[in-house]
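User: Second chain of the day. Same drill as before.
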Amino acid sequence: MEFVGMPALQILLVAIIFLSLLVEIKTGGMGLGAMLGLVAAGIFFSGQYVKGLVSFYHIAIFLGGILCIIIEMLTPATGLFAGLGVAAMLYSLILALGGDIGALYLLLISAVLALVIFAVIVKKLPASRLWKKIVLSDMPTSGQGYVTSEDKSSLIGKDGVVLTELRPAGTALIEDKPVDVVSEGTFIKKEAHIRVIAVNGSRVVVRKVK
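Assistant: Same format as last time:
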């Protein structure tokens, strides 16, 4: 297990542990990500144990952190168990790496590597209840002074008059209200009659009516 003491391999193993944790939080399933993380953790801790840097106490803290995260996934908790679990895992990893400033640097490099890989694959992964809870908890709400974009789908098929030249974006008067619109790509002069042909989010697409 001497090869496990190599800094580059330690960074890789810890990065895999972090990545598997992120994947499991995102997907909420005990799948390939969890198995890969457990294998990486087993190799890492066994190598550090042989070197005398960790004891069963440190391993127990790490496993306790995993247990807390599993509880968070399976119960309607508020995020407390997930926070405790991540803190316990980080604490055990820092101790296993020597508990000094070098351990923090190695942990930081591993975390950055894991985050970069996770950012590449995150959109391809299904979202779990825990992930939705984490993401939605920080989303702005109308009660905090934020409002979502107005639904303008009802404007489809409505006619209007151009208030400012569309090059291709501009403003049109539709149902007696000024609306930001965009043409299909063609120039439309002021006071021309237009019709709304599509609405994509806040983007209102219009066409000149002959």
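The first helix runs from residue 7 to 27.

User: Great, on to the next one.
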